[in-house]
Amino acid sequence: MERRSFIKSTGLLAGGTLMGGVESFAQHQSKIIKIGVVGCGDRGKGMMHVIQNLKDRFRITAICDVLDFRLDEARKITKEAPVAAYKDYHKLMNDQNIDAVVVAVPLNMHYPVAEAVLKADKHLYLEKTMTFDIAQALKLVQLSKERPKQVVQVGHQYRYSPLYYKVKDMIANGVLGKVNQIDCRWDRNGTWRRPVPDPSLERQINWRMYKEYSGGLVAELLSHQIDFINWAFDTHPTEFHSTGGIDIFKDGRETYDNVQVMFRYPEAGIIGNFGSTCGNAYDGYLFKIKGTKGSISLLTDKGVFYPEKNAGPKNEIVDGVTGASKITWNKDGGAPILPEPTKDGTWYALIDFHKAVKSGTLPDSNVFTGARTAICVHLANQALYNKEIQYWKKAYSELDA
Which residues cross the membrane (predicted)? Predict the structure, then answer.
């Protein structure tokens, strides 16, 4: 269900379908997906900017947010074309001028809005993490199964990046040897707060700080790397160890600002370490995959392969993966995985969303894979806040279609 060849995917990413001659207006219009956006905060507006740059595939026809100033900000993005604006997402669902809905609301509202989208017979692009808790993840899987014609894509966009596809391919072909350790960080040095124009809006705007609405750093940042490991190795962890606290900003927040989680993947023989802090930005985004033949160090848009000293000739190892006739090694003894940095992952993800809606295919990041990662995030947070090891349950493995 989750697997697609690298060639097929990069064929899509290179620019979609090539058409001979001149498209008729009707043909062009048939390609356009009319989008409603629910949630016009930072992420929602970021999605809107990318959608606006894909006008051959999408058109934003409606926006929704509970805060008036967010709607005003969103209108500025779509100022060249009028859009319907709603404060109640239920009313947006009744809008017949919408084919699909992008949902970028606080995590506790992911499931209620997603449920409304599917029951309104619209396609769904749901931001990560898929759901607030495990029960909601299982319910959304079931709801999606009952509506097989509707596409559900989850916003773990690394599954669409040519770079991360290449890394997955390298792992599958044994270039790293036996992978045994994963080290991931997503750090920053700041409060993680958004400005609040009115104190009464504190919890609505800074919802990430409060347990009622948020899964904290694990859900908002580390979930991307957690999801990629599930995908790259076609597995999931079974043991969840966590520690953390409110160690830096004593400002009334409830979610931790300093966390470290450790997962055990017994089928793959891997230990995964995932950490995030609001108190130091030196590492920033760090993603290292370590095997007996070599390591990969990743950023969001570029990566480097480092062979182990005892793994054989460098050129033989890398040429076998890249097909390159000439390898450029950096001063640390590593070779770039791709020759150029990739685009923002959201761009690739939205292109695939368009393809999935038009062709009725299952996206790489779908309701089943989204549920698996949401369960991982929730178990990690249970271990974090309850201070006890959590374990994967057999019932969680019965998610697939």
Answer: none
